[in-house]
């Protein structure tokens, strides 16, 4: 009985491993928009059979990262800025709702408690700021996710997290520009100060400006820059 269950579990484990590896490859630009590959190529690289690879690829297709081509060919979906705009706008709405709820419903003490982890990261002296663009991209993503989570609505947090993940590929590329570092610290610090003071209109306005800035930066990203970032990461 135990052996039978072990056999059943093995393909699922291999498929999950393949899925995780391929998703990281896409998000870290090792598989860039427009890249084509086959199941056989992936199976050989991961040293597994094509069955778990195929399961992982179809899972990534359902999530919108890949397109299936003839026979066993696959394509990393090109960037669709209309779709990206939709996710930026969705994030803006959800984050505004979270900040509104936090400012209106929570006491000053409650806001301090909910936002303290973020304040410890972003309300810091300039000498304490991270200069690592990759780390800052991760911290910026966490800022938005944790800000929404602090409002205490699990459903909004779930939808927001999914939207944030769909933007990750262009979000990370934007942080290859060092000038982004100081600006992000300043914008997040101002938003947190407004939220801690219970000033919902100001916090919402600052968030909107920040997200619009990220959206505009994404529009400027070219396939050349995407490949350059992938090459630098692989070096």
Automatic annotation (TrEMBL):
<dbReference type="InterPro" id="IPR036388">
    <property type="entry name" value="WH-like_DNA-bd_sf"/>
</dbReference>
<dbReference type="Pfam" id="PF00392">
    <property type="entry name" value="GntR"/>
</dbReference>
<dbReference type="InterPro" id="IPR036390">
    <property type="entry name" value="WH_DNA-bd_sf"/>
</dbReference>
<feature type="domain" description="HTH gntR-type">
    <location>
        <begin position="12"/>
        <end position="79"/>
    </location>
</feature>
<keyword id="KW-0805">Transcription regulation</keyword>
<keyword id="KW-0238">DNA-binding</keyword>
<dbReference type="InterPro" id="IPR011711">
    <property type="entry name" value="GntR_C"/>
</dbReference>
<dbReference type="Pfam" id="PF07729">
    <property type="entry name" value="FCD"/>
</dbReference>
<dbReference type="InterPro" id="IPR000524">
    <property type="entry name" value="Tscrpt_reg_HTH_GntR"/>
</dbReference>
<keyword id="KW-0804">Transcription</keyword>
<dbReference type="InterPro" id="IPR008920">
    <property type="entry name" value="TF_FadR/GntR_C"/>
</dbReference>
<dbReference type="GO" id="GO:0003700">
    <property type="term" value="F:DNA-binding transcription factor activity"/>
</dbReference>
<dbReference type="GO" id="GO:0003677">
    <property type="term" value="F:DNA binding"/>
</dbReference>
<protein>
    <submittedName>
        <fullName>Bacterial regulatory protein, GntR family protein 51</fullName>
    </submittedName>
</protein>
């Amino acid at each position: 009985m135990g052996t039978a269950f072990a056999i059943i579990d093995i393909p699922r484990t291999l498929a999950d491993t393949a899925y995780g590896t391929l998703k990281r490859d896409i998000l870290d630009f090792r598989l860039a928009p427009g890249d084509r590959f086959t199941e056989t190529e992936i199976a050989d690289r991961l040293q597994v059979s094509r069955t778990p690879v195929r399961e992982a690829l179809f899972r990534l297709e359902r999530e919108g990262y890949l397109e299936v081509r003839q026979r066993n060919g696959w394509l990393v979906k090109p960037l669709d800025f209309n779709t990206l705009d939709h996710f930026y706008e969705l994030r803006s709405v959800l984050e505004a709702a979270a900040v509104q709820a936090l400012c209106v419903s929570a006491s000053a003490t409650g806001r301090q408690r909910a936002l303290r982890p973020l304040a410890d990261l972003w309300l810091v002296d300039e000498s304490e700021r991270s200069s690592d663009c990759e780390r800052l991209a991760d911290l910026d993503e966490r800022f938005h996710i944790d800000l929404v989570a602090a409002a205490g609505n699990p459903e909004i947090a779930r939808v927001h997290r999914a939207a944030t993940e769909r933007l990750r590929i262009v979000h990370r590329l934007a942080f290859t520009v060092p000038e982004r570092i100081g600006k992000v610290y300043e914008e997040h610090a101002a938003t947190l100060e407004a939220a801690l003071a219970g000033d919902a209109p100001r916090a919402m306005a600052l968030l909107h400006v920040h997200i619009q800035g990220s959206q505009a930066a994404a529009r400027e990203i070219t396939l050349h820059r995407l490949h350059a970032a992938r090459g630098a990461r692989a070096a």
